Amino acid sequence: MKIVNLDGYTTNPGDLSWEGISRLGDYTVYDRTAPNQVIERAKGANILIVNKTIITKEILDALSPELEYIGLQSTGYNVVDCEYARKLGITVCNIPSYSTKAVAQLVFAFILQITNQVNLHSEAVKNGEWCSCPDFCFWKTPLTELAGKTIGIIGFGAIGRQVAKIAEAFDMKVLAYAPRPKEKGELKTVEFVDIDTLLSGSDIITCHCPLTEQTKGLINKETIDRMKKSAIFINTSRGPVVDEKALADALNNGKIAAAGLDVLETEPAKSDNPLLTARNCYITPHIAWAAQETRARLLKILEENLEAYLNGKPQNVVN
């Protein structure tokens, strides 16, 4: 069984082990693969493992009939033409729910940075401003208490639910929007509302929806105009959910207060992306999933997915 991983580095830059995959076949791993290298490197593979490398209809044709399985190192599967893979008899499996708590953690890292401005005040202290202050304390910007504020969660899968759980621990009110009915479970304050009510009624809005034709550009000039001027917007889902120019314009013109983004439409970021210079915009380089514990969990599920397939009982199939 020939196994080829085209995108190994971000999952395992050297602090984890590939041993679990290696024992399942003849395993070759590449740190990263350029588009013009895909067919050459993957030719003859029975098992292909990818993360952000795009697998098109043309690539699938070139790799068949040997290719029988594609293992994603991600929850999202839009990088693979899954429908065409199914027609060719190629099974595609993803990694669900491996980063739920880590992503929710970064959501609140953004929220707390924006509301408490820890970095700003730490730098002020290091620059001597506290030493020369006539009072026992000072603050350089208004500070915000989360208790009693309303957080609006767009998309209420595992991550959205985890965000709601943390929000309730902060005594926040929770509005949620989901295209299909969801159960509140153990959550106490969640109120399911339509998207317009969520946008206009939330102090903080956070996106946790998949990238689909319906969600692409969901956050645009129209939807931003419905938000409060004091609103904080967070996106840790997929970059194309946001119209980046519209968000940058809104930040620069004071239409909303701040944004925290872990994803952009094009990654790595382009130097001319308007959000890189937008007012009160905090951007991290797609790190919500990247804690060592989270990546170790991903590798374990990747191994389990492949083993289940080889045993004739595929799991986490997305096509």
Can you describe this structure?
With 319 residues, the protein is an alpha/beta fold. The protein has 11 helices and 12 strands. The strands form 2 sheets. It has a 7-stranded parallel beta sheet with strand order 8-7-6-9-10-11-12, sandwiched between helices. The protein is globular. The two termini are 22 Å apart. The mean pLDDT is 96.
The total of helices stands at: 11
Radius of gyration: 22 Å
Any low-confidence stretches, pLDDT <50, length ≥5? Answer: none
Strand numbers in spatial order across the main sheet: 8-7-6-9-10-11-12
The shape, in one word, is: globular
Query: What is the helix content?
Result: 25-40%
Question: Which class do the helix and strand fractions yield?
Answer: alpha/beta
* % residues in beta strands: 5-15%
Following the backbone from N to C, one meets helices and strands in this order, namely: EHEHEHEHEHHEHEEHEHEHEEH
> Cα distance, first to last residue?
22 Å
Major sheet details:
7 strands, parallel
Mean pLDDT: 96
Tally of extended strands? 12
